[in-house]
Amino acid sequence: MRILIQRCSKSAVVIDGTERRTSGAGMVILLGIGHDDSESDIDWLVQKTVQLRIFPDDTGIMNRSILESGGDILLISQFTLHASTRKGNRPSYIAAARPEQAIPLYTTFIQKLTQSLGKSVTTGTFGADMQVELVNNGPVTIWMDSKAKE
């Protein structure tokens, strides 16, 4: 399972002309689910995400988590995070989970992230054509892969 986190000052997603907007600063998380991912990957990534200290404290040092900052999260499913560009110019997405496997894991990720955050998470719609808007604050962009724990 792979996530790309961007710290943002505001974010929204538009799906079929309907906008879903977070109430303020926080994170945009792009989530890529692979065919070998499981609930243990979710648990590790959710814990790392909510404890990640990327928000400034009173002195401007990145020393607060999303829990401490009270920020919002916009979560978007993103199968292209599993793109392989080793051969040719057309990315291969063979490592991405098929919808019948990915949708339940995406739903579980939302539930566990909501529970850990202590408030609802704004989401995209799995498989939909979405326009994601954000102002990357910093910029701060963090890549995590549950199969390459550092």
What does this structure look like?
α1 packs parallel to α3. The model has no long low-confidence stretch (mean pLDDT 95). The chain has a single domain (2-145), classed as D-tyrosyl-trna(Tyr) Deacylase, Chain: A (3-Layer(bba) Sandwich). β6, α3 (99-117) and β7 form a beta-alpha-beta unit. The chain is globular and about 45 Å long. The protein has 150 residues and is an alpha/beta fold. Strands 1, 2, 3, 6, 7 and 8 form a 6-stranded mixed β-sheet that branches. A two-stranded antiparallel ribbon has the order 4-5. Helix content is 24%, strand content 36%.
Number of domains: 1
- Overall form: globular
* CATH class category name: Alpha Beta
Roughly how many Å is the radius of gyration?
A: 15 Å
